[in-house]
Amino acid sequence: MAEAHGSTAAGAAGVGLSKGDTGRGAATGSSVIAGGGTATAQGVLEVEGLSASYGPVKALDGVTLRAEQGRITAVLGANGAGKTTLLRTISGLVRPTAGRVLLNGEDVTRSPVEAMVTKGMSHVPEGRGVIAELTVDENLRVGSLFRGKVGQDEFDRVYDLFPRIKERRTSTAHTLSGGERQMLVIGRALLARPKLLLLDEPSLGLAPRIVAQIFALLRRLVDTEGLSVLLVEQNARSALSVADTGVVLNLGRVVVTDDAHRLAGDEDLRHAYLGF
Amino acid sequence: MQQFVNLTLGGVIIGAVYAAFALALVLIWRSTRIVNFAQGAMAALTTFIALSLIEGGQSYWVGLAVALVAGLVIGAVVERVVIRPVEGGPELNAVIVTLGLFIAIQALISVLFGVNQRAFVAPFSTIGFRAGDFTLALSPNTLFTLGAVLLVMVGLIALFRFTRVGLAMRASAFGQEVARLLGVRVGRMLTLGWALAAVVGSLAGMLIAAEVTFVAPTFMDSLIVFGFVAAVLGGLDSPIGAVVGGLLLGLALSYVRGYIDDTLVGLAALVILVVVLLVRPGGLFSTTQTRRA
């Protein structure tokens, strides 16, 4: 049942991606079945046979998946399935014991964590990683530091996306609500101008209305700007409603990879792994 | 009244030096959660380097510049070589390493420069200004001490508030992992933090040497105690707290010295430390509450 797709050819094709490639937004979710090698699909991120351990405990066991250009790929599964470890291994915070990570065709498995953002990947960690002691504005500036001087217009654009945090720009980040923190970290990640956004449990502890707002915004960014998203979620129902492709993890292994609508419609699978 | 004025002046001046030293401890604590017990010995080493240059005929200013540069280099090397392997490990490891470093550097000073006391000549006159027939505990040299500490504080505040490097350093200190994910080279920032702290420590060493006029390899030992108390008083996390803590401690100890007894100064510092830890464990300017939020 596990539909592994180790298509390395698609990885190579991902090399000269242009950000202006926005036309595919219209194709949202319906055309692509995430099986190996759909001719037009370009793997921004290819994960091949990735394994990682915490001491004797194997957290990831040969995980293979890909995130495609201009799509939202949701990684689902119960607590302890290895979702967070997967993201942390992709960005280099956890070193894999086996396997490869390709970003736009480039092998980044051994790249330092600090370098990932310069290669076009932003990782928003679990628990809304705001730097609590810095102000909202300073948090955003940290996100753009590696790029050198960044114009005020880019900050204004983030503030336009999230008017809520604009009002709080001089407040220290620890005074923000959960939803505001999530907006801040997503905005901060966008200031890095990523091609690929890794999001770890953005819905955690947020009101359903805020979750819907944030997911709708993600969808819009993906459709209009060609952003690619790898979304880790325990809240499978919400995640599948916004994603194009779903990957179900259980005990560190990929159980199934399929079109998000089909996954949401598969009652047996939902009961067994997704809890809704 | 005259005694009160002079004790207050003396307290502010010595407090400024405590503040500088506390600031060095806070810089390191903030970024690496390590209390650098070797700070005093590192400062003593750079002071002795400067002293041997001055004794060799160089001007005080050449000695000062060399001491600050030596501090920068020693701080960076110590972080990269000795501290990096224990960063993120059990807290006790780092404590033992800095204590070991303290003993090793002090021994190194004795080997290089001998154990005898040596005279350290202040760069400016140490004769107090006069108001009528009343001699103030304020001399051109103490004005220099105050000015130098003030300059360093303003410089550090400007660095942290207004520069990109300062922002990167603060981000690294408060959210290491997040900073790395955002592309900040956290390792470099930690090295820079240690180097800056050692520069500030070296300055404190040079200033206190001019105040005490005789230096031996152990001359910074009492300053590490006072600097640590000042830093804890201010909350260990807060640069402004370190400055206020340093000034308060300087004043308190100066009054103890003048009104009670000279020999009670060390005891008084420890009493203040214990009382602060009992009443306000987070220090007067603690930011731990915000961290937990």
List the helices and strands and how they pair.
The complex is a heterodimer of chains A (276) and B (293).
Chain A: H1 8-13, E1 43-54, E2 57-68, E3 72-76, H2 83-90, E4 98-103, E5 106-107, H3 113-116, E6 121-124, H4 136-144, H5 152-161, H6 163-166, H7 178-190, E7 196-200, H8 208-225, E8 228-233, H9 236-242, E9 245-250, E10 253-259, H10 260-265, H11 267-274
Parallel strand pairs in A: 3-8, 3-9, 6-7, 7-8
Antiparallel strand pairs in A: 1-2, 1-4, 4-5, 9-10
Chain B: H1 2-32, H2 39-55, H3 60-83, H4 91-113, E1 118-119, E2 130-131, E3 134-135, H5 140-162, H6 164-174, H7 176-181, H8 186-212, E4 214-215, H9 221-234, H10 239-260, H11 265-279, H12 288-292
Antiparallel strand pairs in B: 1-4, 2-3
InterPro entries (chain A): AAA+_ATPase, ABC_transporter-like_ATP-bd, ABC_transporter-like_CS, BCAA_Transport_ATP-bd_LivF, P-loop_NTPase
Biased composition (Low complexity) (chain A): 1-16
Domain ABC transporter (chain A): 45-276
Note down, in words, how this protein is organized:
The complex is a heterodimer of chains A (276) and B (293). Chain A folds into two domains: 42-120 and 195-275, P-loop containing nucleotide triphosphate hydrolases (Rossmann fold, 3-Layer(aba) Sandwich), CATH 3.40.50.300; 126-193, no CATH class. Helices cover 34% and strands 24% of the residues of chain A. Chain A has helices at 8-13, 83-90, 113-116, 136-144, 152-161, 163-166, 178-190, 208-225, 236-242, 260-265, 267-274; strands at 43-54, 57-68, 72-76, 98-103, 106-107, 121-124, 196-200, 228-233, 245-250, 253-259. Chain B has 293 residues and is mainly alpha-helical. Chain B has a single domain (2-124, 135-279), classed as ABC transporter involved in vitamin B12 uptake, BtuC, CATH 1.10.3470. In chain B, 74% of the residues lie in helices and 3% in strands. Chain B has helices at 2-32, 39-55, 60-83, 91-113, 140-162, 164-174, 176-181, 186-212, 221-234, 239-260, 265-279, 288-292, and strands spanning 118-119, 130-131, 134-135, 214-215. In chain B, helix 2 runs parallel beside helix 4 (91-113) and helix 6 (164-174) crosses helix 8. The interface between A and B is medium-sized, with 27 and 21 residues.
